[in-house]
Amino acid sequence: MQSPTKADRMAYQIAISSLAKSGGECYAATQLLNLMKERGFSPDLVCYNEVLIGITKQAGSDKGRRWHELALDILQDIESQKELSNCITDQTYNSVIAACGKEGAWAAAASVARRSNSSAFCNYSTAVDSEQQSSYFSNFLGIFKKHGKGKEAWWEVATYRCGTNLKISVGIQPHRNPKQNGFSLVFYRGDEMKVGRILLAPFTNSHYSSIVGMEVNRELRGEGLSKVLIAIWLHICLYTKAAFPRAAKMNKPLVALVLSKFGFVPDDGGTRCVLIRLENDAKDHNPIFGLYSAQRKSLDGAFSHRVLRTQNIKLLGSPPNSKGVDVVIKTTFSHPYKPPDDGRNDDELQRERALLEEKINATLNLGENNDKGGGKMEYFASNEKLRRAFLSF
């Protein structure tokens, strides 16, 4: 009778690779890895990396097992072997960092990142940002009602009503990693039709809420909703008692025009233009505007064909015959209501706040009798809790 063939190094590595890739058998792969070394065989770096990838996938899924500790033990084993330590790849470090991050072991992840290369540092930063995003959801948005799923999820923070027919739900919709990519204020009608959204800049641990852009549902354009949505954003800023509004570099003339109506002033630079209504089709409420600037070269390249089409704007080569309105684009905007400094006292700050509040109330019809068509803003949390969701501090 022929005796069974003993497993060689290749046989072990094939078996370990198969177990590591099968999900539920990853722990068995680590045990077989230890047995392989006890039998005098040395796994190569590919074998180690396959086990680490399997561990990363399992990390955080089983509260009874600390997968990241297994990953750290394997990394220590690799680094102790001179022939392997000199050829450790990004994949090795990144897998260990990811496993630590999924189980909240940030000190261990940082330690691994410090002794690796820049690519692993990036992976560590991404893991930390993901944890910060999860913290943002649980700590600041968890008190609000959630609508939708996945990327379309949003948290309802307020409702605006005007008369008996108009109701707009206002929500916060974080982008992936809000501390880096910002978030949107989204607006939905009572029938769950999306009215539009305002894009806000990433959190900067400051008291500024900075608008980046906005869009209104194409089917609802021409109804004056741009001004209403910006007024709601500004009302939230005042409600938090901590957020001061400003605008990032603005290339959309229609948004720049609405901002100017609330007292925003362009900062240095920018291009002065004349905005004029060319036609208004009452059927689809899509007005077409012309934009002219004496500095024509300043408009070259400022707008893509897509932006011109979606914004219904036509660039004019000569001054318009009829009167338009002056706007400034391609610059940032500030508002006189801003954090106090050495040159401004509290009385001036409160005066600017009152002027802004007056413009907001006029746009939203606030303070009027609601039964006779007046408007009302209703918030679902205190100003302090909304401030945390709105400014992340």
Can you lay out the helices and strands and say which pair or pack?
Blueprint: H1 9-21, H2 26-38, H3 45-58, H4 67-79, H5 82-85, H6 90-102, H7 106-114, H8 118-141, E1 145-147, E2 154-162, E3 166-174, H9 178-181, E4 183-189, E5 194-200, E6 208-216, H10 225-240, E7 244-250, H11 253-261, E8 265-266, E9 271-279, E10 288-292, H12 296-299, H13 305-310, E11 313-315, E12 325-329, E13 331-334, H14 346-364, E14 375-379, H15 383-391
Parallel strand pairs: 6-7, 10-11
Antiparallel strand pairs: 1-2, 2-3, 2-14, 3-4, 4-5, 5-6, 7-13, 8-13, 9-10, 9-12
Helix pairs in contact: 1-2, 1-3, 2-3, 3-4, 3-6, 4-6, 6-7, 6-8, 7-8, 8-15, 10-14
Number of strands: 14
The SSE string, one letter per element, is HHHHHHHHEEEHEEEHEHEEEHHEEEHEH
Low-confidence stretches: none
What is the radius of gyration? 29 Å
Number of helices: 15
Q: What level of helicity do the residues show?
A: 40-55%
Amino- and carboxy-terminal Cα gap: 76 Å
Estimate the mean pLDDT confidence: 82
Looking at how many chains there are and whether they match, the oligomeric state comes to single chain
Q: What class, by secondary structure content?
A: alpha+beta
**Basic shape:** elongated
Q: What proportion strand?
A: 15-25%
Q: What is the makeup of the main sheet? A: 10 strands, mixed
